[in-house]
Amino acid sequence: MFKTFIRKIPLFLANTVVFLTILCLFGWLVRETTKGKQWVPHNVSRSVSFFTTLPDRLVKAKAAVERLPLVYVPSPERFEPINKLEEDVKVLIS
Question: Rounded to 5 degrees, what are φ and ψ at 10?
Fold first, then answer.
């Protein structure tokens, strides 16, 4: 049991080094993209910018969903609906 554990340590360390290297390269690419370097291809720059601004866009979307719509008109307090239909109307609104 101890021998199998010892054999797995180098593999774990190698995977950790590879993961940290990829993470470091991604961070460097993000930094270069935000500086506006021209040598970074436009597709790569756009993809990295899209990926790194995702949390900001999610927060903005959450705020937009939580607030009342700008066209919201509250119903009067004494409002009573009138329904004279004999059958329910089924409508798909998108």
Answer: -60, -35
b or e along 29-51 (b: 16 or more beta carbons within 10 Å of the residue's beta carbon)? Answer: beeebeeeeeeeeeeebeebeee
Q: What domain count does the chain have? A: 1
Whether the CB-CB separation of 33 and 53 falls below 8 Å is answered with no
**What is the extent of the structural domain holding 22?**
2-66
23-75 confidence digits (pLDDT tens):
888 887 777 777 776 676 777 777 777 877 778 888 999 988 888 677 778 88
What's this model's pTM, rounded to 2 decimal places?
0.44
Q: First and final CA of the chain: distance in angstroms? A: 60
**Residue 75 maps to a domain:** no
**DSSP secondary structure letter of residue 72:** -
Structure-block tokens of residue 68: 């009342």
Nearest to 48 by CA among 15, 25, 18: 25
